[in-house]
Amino acid sequence: MSDHGFRDFYYHGGAFNNIDHDQQSYGGETDHMYRVSSSSIDPSYMSFTDCLHSTSMDYGSLEKAFGLSPTSSEVFSSVEGGNRTMMKQHHVGADELGGNTGEVTATLNSSVSSSSTEAGCEEDSDKSKKDGQPKGSDDGGESSKKGNKAKMKGEKKQREPRFAFVTKSEVDQLEDGYRWRKYGQKAVKNSPYPRSYYRCTTQKCTVKKRVERSFQDPSTVITTYEGQHNHPLPTTLRGSAAGLFPPSMLTPSPLGRPSFPHELLMQMPNYHHQMNNQAPAGSMFAENFSPFHQYVHQHQVPDYGLLQDMVPSTFLKHEP
DNA sequence: CGCATTTGACCAGCGC
DNA sequence: GCGCTGGTCAAATGCG
């Protein structure tokens, strides 16, 4: 949807022929949207980290790093680091999808301020508190059930950075190795498909994700992650990655370099920096999905939930 | 029985 | 101020 001010750039065979990027500001935030059209991509051409180092922000590298094959799957991704740009990015993703088979599009929305991203990283001041504290605990008097939300009033609402992926998938629930519990579902305006809300089931982990199907392209699923996992991937994945990935796939990258977001993350200076004061980065993605791209190719149902962990800080683009 | 999902209600923020 | 909408809660229900 060009009316968002986004343009396209094309990427062929490992070289960017044309990169176009535009941005918009939404209440202090700036959204970035990158679109990549590719006909042939060599996943081994460049690592994700390489891309990060070589360019300010190349989402095309995402696809490369992840080994995405535009011919087998389409992935749109977007990041946001502030407060409420999600809906827009959803629109972008959905719009961009229209008839673009064989393309890999990435959308990036980021906050103009990295500090906001990092600061807001772990604690979702608005919701995690709500979530973290047992609603009933403050018991309150009257509406002890739902009235406690109001108590967070005075505080400045600050959302955690979000990272959204738009994927071609038949299933709504994409597997990313973590366990999620659905805690809500809402009808999406202008869309016959509902949006589902999930929360990481790991205690103290405030990561949430939203999953909705694109109205314009029902075969497209938009997954938005919010927050950072402060724990390693569950070792016992029930009906999750463990069940979907052959044992051979759950092994360290044979190439010694990242081919999956988790690994990529570990090589990102910014990511390490960000993780330093919150979770053991080294263990965060200990469970390897390095051959993840294979899975992507085979199942066309990639879920890069963990990307949200790195992109917000790593891909942040600071406005001039 | 424990955990996950469903679903209606509630709340906050925003636009008019 | 009011209505709309997104997001969340939590009781009820389902499932293994």
UniProtKB/TrEMBL annotation:
Annotated localization: Nucleus
Molecular function GO labels: DNA-binding transcription factor activity; sequence-specific DNA binding
Record InterPro entries: WRKY_dom (IPR003657), WRKY_dom_sf (IPR036576), WRKY_plant (IPR044810)
UniProt domain WRKY: residue ranges: 169-234
Region of interest (Disordered), residue spans: 94-163
Keywords annotated in UniProt: DNA-binding, Nucleus, Transcription, Transcription regulation
Entry-linked SUPFAM superfamilies: WRKY DNA-binding domain
Biased composition (Basic and acidic residues): 126-145, 152-162
PROSITE patterns, alphabetized: WRKY (PS50811)
A Pfam match: WRKY
GO CC entries: nucleus
Transcription regulation found in the keyword field: yes
Gene3D superfamilies assigned to the protein according to its UniProt record, in alphabetical order: WRKY domain
PANTHER family: WRKY TRANSCRIPTION FACTOR 20 (PTHR31221:SF320), WRKY TRANSCRIPTION FACTOR PROTEIN 1-RELATED (PTHR31221)
Protein known as: WRKY domain-containing protein
